[in-house]
Amino acid sequence: MTAEEKAYSMLSLAMKAGALKCGGFNCEEAIKKRKAFLIIAAEDIAAGSLKTLCDKSRTAGIEVIRFGTKEGLARAVGKEYTSCIAVCDRSFAEGLKKKF
Length: 100
Description:
By secondary structure, this protein is an alpha+beta fold. It has five helices and four strands.
């Protein structure tokens, strides 16, 4: 299993555990409420959306990692479409950082 496959697998597990928030609005809410420990943005996220996420994350001291595609992230978490994910569990966030 490649490192990328392991990361997608870990995202899937985190989603089942209820540790993720998907989509721009949900990610921004998690950042505002200080619930996010890591933001994962797809490589093909819109430039404006990425800037907004990065600005809000930087202010809150949350790391943003670019990984995968919108389709790949969505498939990993069982959604039809998502361009960003907020990891709201410290353990999963640390584990995912190691995968990247």
